[in-house]
Amino acid sequence: MKLLFSVDWLRSKIASDPDVETEAGRPLVGFDQVKSMESGIVAVIPQRNVIQMRIALGTLVRQLRQRDRLTLQEVAARAEVSEEELRQVETNPSYTARPRLIFQLSKFFGVSLNNLSQMSGATHAVDRRLYNDAVQYAAHSDDVAPLSELQLEILNGFVAVLNTPKALSGHD
Amino acid sequence: MKTLLGEVVLFNRWTDRFDPAAVYQGLDSTNFRDFENLWKPELDRRAAEFGTWAEAAEGNTQDAHWDWVGKAKSEASYEAFAVECGGVTQGLMLIDLALHHARLPPHKGLDLCYIELVASAPWNRRGFSDNPKYKGTGRVLLATALSFGIDQELKGRTGLHSLPESETWYGPLGFTNCGYDEGKQLQYFEMTEAAAASFLA
Question: For residue B1, what are the contacts with CB-CB under 8 A and spacing of at least 6?
Answer without folding.
Answer: B26
